[in-house]
Amino acid sequence: MPGEPYQKGAGALRSDARHNRERILAAAREAYAARGIDVPLTAIARRAGVGVATLYRRFPTRAALVAEAFAEQLAVCAGLLDDALADPDPWRGFCTVVEKVCVMQAVDRGFTAAFLAQFPDGGTDYEQVRRRAEDGLVELVRRAKADGRLRADFAVSDLTLVLLANAGVAAEPQEVAVAASRRLAAYLLQSFRAQGARPLPPPAPLGLRNVHAGSR
C-alpha cells in the first residue's frame, strides 16, 4: 500500500521517542537519588545518552522532569499519609509516618528534595502535595496528642528536625543508611512519648522547606 512506508516510519519515530523518554526518566531518577534535584539538565541528558534539545522537547522545565520522575513516589507518600490518618490508633499512625518517611529519605535523597522543593516555573502539583502533607502532619500530631501518647509540647516543626537529623545518614551506602535511619527513628519516637516527658527548650521556627535547604 502506498501509505505503508510512512506508517512504519511514524511507528519507528514514536518508538524512538518513547525510548528516549524512558531513558531520560531513568537517568533523572538515578541522578536525583545520588545528588538531589539540583543536578543540571545537561548532565541528565548526557547520562541518558540524548541531546539537550531532545530532553527539553520531552520535559520543557525542571519541574516537569522532577514531577514525572517522582510521580510514583509522590503517590506512595500521599497514600502513606492517608493510611496513617485512617488508622484508628493515632499513635501508631504517627509512628508509621515517621518511620517510613525516614526510610524513604535514607533510600532516595532526590525524592526528599523533590517532595519538599518549590518550583517557580510551574510546580503547582508539587505545591499542592506539599501543602497536603503539611496539613496531614498537623492532623496526625493533633490526634496523637489528643490520644495522650504524644508529649504535649511536641511541635509540628519537630518533624522537620527529624528529617534534618535523618538526612545525615543518606550519604552512607543504602544498606547502612536504612539501618541507621530505622534506629534513629526508634530513638526519637521513644523521646516523643508523653510518659515521663520532661520540659524542652522552645521549638525552632522550621518548616518542611528547611529540609530541602539543609540538604544542599
Automatic annotation (TrEMBL):
Residues in HTH tetR-type domain copies: 24-69
Keyword annotations from UniProtKB, A to Z: DNA-binding, Transcription, Transcription regulation
Organism, scientific name: Streptomyces tremellae
Domain Transcriptional regulator SbtR-like C-terminal: 90-185
Protein's name in the database: TetR/AcrR family transcriptional regulator
SUPFAM superfamilies in UniProt: Homeodomain-like, Tetracyclin repressor-like, C-terminal domain
